[in-house]
Every structure is written in structure tokens, then in C-alpha cells.
């Protein structure tokens, strides 16, 4: 897969994750677009690879935060049911 295709795939997957962002999708989309546009002129394949790796790391961190949020919500619900 070409680097361009990987960057586009990363952008789309991050954009999809932004739908559940606490500060809103518009805020997330604007920040994401600015981050990608800031680096649009980078042509060094090694540098692009590092940026893709960083983007994948950010993606995993966001997914982990979402899972933690869901876990805490479920835990709170079950604790409330046991008390009630």
C-alpha cells in the first residue's frame, strides 16, 4: 500500500473516531484537518513513515480512552443498580 493511501486511510479512521469526541465532532475535525494540512508538503518517505506511526499511536490512544469511558459508564450503571 502506498504511503499516500495509508495517510488517507489514517485520516478517515481518525475522522470516524472523532464522531464520539467529547468536545464535539466539529472541534475534532478542525484540529485533525489542521494537523494533516500542516504536514502536507513533507515528501521525505522516512519522515512520512514516522508521522504515520505517530498517527497510529494517537488513534490507539483515542480508542483506549473511548473504551475506558464506556467501561466507567457501565461500571457506574451496575453499581447504581446494585444500590437501588
Automatic annotation (TrEMBL):
InterPro entries: Complex1_LYR_dom (IPR008011), Complex1_LYR_ETFRF1_LYRM5 (IPR045296), ETFRF1 (IPR052000). This is Uncharacterized protein. It comes from Nesidiocoris tenuis. GO terms for biological process: negative regulation of oxidative phosphorylation; respiratory electron transport chain. It holds the Pfam family Complex1_LYR. One of its GO terms (cellular component) is mitochondrion. CDD domains: Complex1_LYR_ETFRF1_LYRM5. Belongs to the complex I LYR family.
Amino acid at each position: 500500500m502506498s504511503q499516500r493511501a495509508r495517510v488517507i486511510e489514517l485520516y478517515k479512521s481518525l475522522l470516524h473516531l472523532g464522531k464520539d469526541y467529547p468536545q464535539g465532532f466539529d472541534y475534532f475535525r478542525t484540529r485533525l484537518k489542521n494537523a494533516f494540512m500542516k504536514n502536507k508538503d513533507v515528501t521525505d518517505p522516512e519522515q512520512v513513515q514516522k508521522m504515520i506511526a505517530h498517527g497510529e499511536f494517537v488513534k490507539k490512544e483515542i480508542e483506549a480512552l473511548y473504551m475506558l469511558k464506556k467501561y466507567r459508564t457501565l461500571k457506574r450503571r451496575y453499581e447504581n443498580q446494585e444500590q437501588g
